[in-house]
Amino acid sequence: SQQGEEDPQALSIQEGENATMNCSYKTSINNLQWYRQNSGRGLVHLILIRSNEREKHSGRLRVTLDTSKKSSSLLITASRAADTASYFCAPPQGGSEKLVFGKGTKLTVNP
Amino acid sequence: DAGVIQSPRHEVTEMGQEVTLRCKPISGHDYLFWYRQTMMRGLELLIYFNNNVPIDDSGMPEDRFSAKMPNASFSNLKIQPSEPRDSAVYFCASSLDRAGGYTFGSGTRLTVV
């Protein structure tokens, strides 16, 4: 089944550094979404990138999409301790509205 | 809008008891999703609805699990009888349309002892 596979599984950086997380998927998509989950909380939608877009920005977030490689990346610039969370990519399954989440990347930003 | 509202936040129950988890989606959202999260299995999609109609329940683990959406403002997920392996955080999410982002509730942490 289609689900995003995030890499790395865990990432630890210092405050102020940039964090890059990668996502690979298997089948063609219309869009791909990224979510954040703080410990003990629900997921929060960060950004949606459509298949005809190559890059999208939202504040300190930059998402890229390469449909030829079936991959996406999430860059967080000038990271803060508050960015500590798990990050998930979610490609829709089979062109549907159904999102199947992978294991995520656990990001730790050390003050 | 208050977002997606789930209740209760925490539930501790004994094995064999019936458990009911509740969800109020965002008004106007056409899609409602139920997920379960554990350390071992991550986030699993259990079932989802479109306009109150169940579309895909292939993720429901077994017949002990059932979910209904009697109207656009409410859904419940029932486990009867509950078992210790059902212990997890259960999330409800809603979406405006098929291409939109999901809004998740805060989850219900279920512990079955």
Helix-strand blueprint:
The complex is a heterodimer of chains A (111) and B (113).
Chain A: E1 5-7, E2 10-14, E3 19-24, E4 31-37, E5 43-50, E6 55-58, E7 61-66, E8 71-76, E9 85-90, E10 105-110
Chain B: E1 5-7, E2 10-13, E3 19-24, E4 31-38, E5 42-50, E6 53-56, E7 65-71, E8 74-79, E9 88-95, E10 102-104, E11 108-112
Parallel strand pairs in B: 2-11
Antiparallel strand pairs in B: 1-3, 3-8, 4-5, 4-9, 5-6, 7-8, 9-10, 9-11
Describe this protein's structure.
Chain A has 111 residues and is mostly beta strands. Chain A is built from no helices and ten strands. Chain A is globular and about 40 Å long. Chain A starts with a strand and ends with a strand. Chain B is mainly beta and 113 residues long. Chain B has no helices and eleven strands. In chain B, strands 2, 4, 5, 6, 9, 10 and 11 form a seven-stranded mixed β-sheet that branches. Chain B has a four-stranded antiparallel β-sheet with strand order 1-3-8-7, with no helix packed on it. The A-B interface holds A 30-31, 33, 35, 41-45, 48, 88, 96-104 and B 4, 31, 33, 35, 42-43, 45, 48, 50, 56, 91, 93, 95, 97-107.
Secondary-structure element order of chain B, as H and E?
EEEEEEEEEEE
Using only CA atoms, what is the Rg of chain B? 13 Å
Number of strands of chain A: 10
Global geometry of chain A: globular
Question: Quick gist of this model?
Answer:
Chain A is an all-beta fold.
Jot down its keywords.
heterodimer; A: 111 residues; mainly beta; five-stranded antiparallel β-sheet; five-stranded mixed β-sheet; B: 113 residues; seven-stranded mixed β-sheet; four-stranded antiparallel β-sheet; 0% helix
